[in-house]
Amino acid sequence: MLAAIQRKGEMRPTHLMYKANLAHRQLKHYLDELVQKELVKRTERNGSEYLLITDSGNRFLEKLKEMRAFEETFGI
Amino acid sequence: MLDALVSWFVGKDIYIDIFSAVVLAIVLGYAASFVKLNPKREYQFFIAAFALLALSFVFQTLAHFTLYHTTTTVKQMGIITLTTTIIKRQDWIIFWSTLLYRACTLLGLYFLYQVYAAKQRLPLVLFQAYLLLLVGFLSQTAYYAFHLTALILLALVLSSAWKRADTWFLASVGLLLLSQAIFLLLIYGNLVYVAAELVQLLGYAFLLLTFVLVLRHAKKRTA
Fold this sequence. Notes:
CATH superfamily of chain A: Winged helix-like DNA-binding domain superfamily/Winged helix DNA-binding domain
CATH architecture of chain A: Orthogonal Bundle
Distance between the termini of chain A: 24 Å
Low-confidence stretches of chain A: none
Distance between the termini of chain B: 55 Å
CATH class of chain A: Mainly Alpha
Number of strands of chain A: 3
Oligomer: heterodimer
Largest interface: A-B, 18 and 26 residues
Helix content of chain B: over 70%
Largest sheet of chain A: 3 strands, antiparallel
Mean pLDDT of chain B: 88
Strand content of chain A: 15-25%
CATH topology of chain A: Arc Repressor Mutant, subunit A
């Protein structure tokens, strides 16, 4: 979900729901958690809700990339 | 000429120990930064393994430093009675640092093997760890027991990680395994020691290279 938002820059929740292939209830659950952890923030423009990745979210994704590369290299 | 090489090498192995400890500490610090993201068992063993291996080289450096410092002091003093006293006083440092070096190395390699091995029950893991500590202690009178056990553990790591890890990491483990095989032949002279230390240096240089490649791969890949 985070990676999808990062790629787009900003995203509407409905678009993310299709992109992440999640049911509405699941999306709301995960999204609330991401917002609570300050990895994603909600903004409103022209009456529509948009999702943006925060600096913490970007840093988290960077760390995740590093971790995956580390795990692949050392076979963990 | 070979004798000159051996003489020149005396004391230089401390730098190899320090280099090895630093490389292990760098990888350890990097791995530790992922524990919050992924607290799985393999990470815990990996971190424990690298911490013990890095610590082992700290003890090895202390042992070598004390040994060479003692030798230097003997040369400078030139008084037999006083020299004997100094060596006796420093003997226990060499004994304990060598013992701790061996214990930490064997436990570290065992934990590294646990990263790739199937999950075992804790009592069995503790019993195996106890046996390795015993080997480390007994190898004070039979040095080859330590090198042979380290060689077997490295062979286990290599075979278990064969299809999972990157070629550079496998090469690093392979070189460390080769260095232990050479250490087993120490009875044939000091040149063997020099060769084993150099192969070990190469092994840790490959580990450093592996780490650099991780950083490069991380930059290239997408989440």
